[in-house]
Design brief:
Largest sheet: none
Radius of gyration: 16 Å
Length: 107
């Protein structure tokens, strides 16, 4: 099974954008609204690329499951970054991403 080159190139471009945004966020002491929004946008782009690849009718069930899982992870990450961007735009000084269901809390 070979994925269409067009889909692979789209994923590569989306992931390059994500990598650049991630590098910028990692180098920034405090992430501002614009950087958080770029992380959200780049994460959505990677998720969309994964979903495009998952749309191939020739995929085996286990490949589809892996692609869907990857897309979901990037979608959740995008939502977290969007929340951070919105909070920063509203003037909140320190924002953590929303807690995940099932995440352990430190006491």
């Amino acid at each position: 099974m070979m994925v269409a080159k067009k889909l692979v190139r789209a994923w590569e471009e989306a992931y390059r954008r994500y990598g650049a945004a991630s590098d910028l966020a990692a180098r920034t002491r405090e992430v501002d609204a614009a950087t958080a929004q770029e992380m959200a946008s780049a994460s959505w782009a990677v998720a969309a690329a994964w979903r495009s690849i998952a749309g191939d009718p020739e995929l085996s069930w286990w490949m589809l499951a892996a692609l869907e899982s990857a897309a979901q992870a990037f979608e959740e990450q995008a939502q977290d970054w969007q929340a951070r961007s919105a909070a920063r735009s509203c003037g909140m000084a320190s924002v953590r991403p929303p807690e995940r269901a099932g995440a352990r809390r430190r006491g």
